[in-house]
Amino acid sequence: MLDGGSGVDIFPLSMLLRMEIGTRRIRPNNVCVRYFDGIKRDTLGEIDLILTIGPVDFEVTFQVLDMGTSYNFLLGRPWIHAAGAVPSTLHQMVKFEDKDQEIVVHREDEQSIYRDPSIPCLEAIEGSEHTVYPIF
Prior knowledge:
Layout: E1 10-12, H1 13-18, E2 32-34, E3 40-42, E4 45-53, E5 56-65, H2 77-83, E6 86-88, E7 93-98, E8 101-106, E9 125-126, E10 131-134
Parallel strand pairs: 1-5, 8-10
Antiparallel strand pairs: 2-3, 4-5, 6-7, 7-8, 9-10
């Protein structure tokens, strides 16, 4: 999920455990976030993960939270600005440039974008004007 209003990139602890990523990789920090319900809570720490979005790898520092969510992770302003991305919630897509090529990523998909040998890579879907890559 992309959230242009979020000031952090969020990774729920439950997803971290489900993906069998060791919690020992979580670095302690002093970050406090305000949940969607307005309540402030401390993070468990932060973790750096490599995400493959379209044909591009991004190293993203996520704040790890022990919370129930309806999404796998949240890419907020830190990732959006680092990628130079333009998200559109209305159109369920995000655009960014890489090597003078426009990358367009559409809607949710069942495939994972976490770069791990045990998780399949994204397959490109050829579009008429540009290549379209699914994201979840």
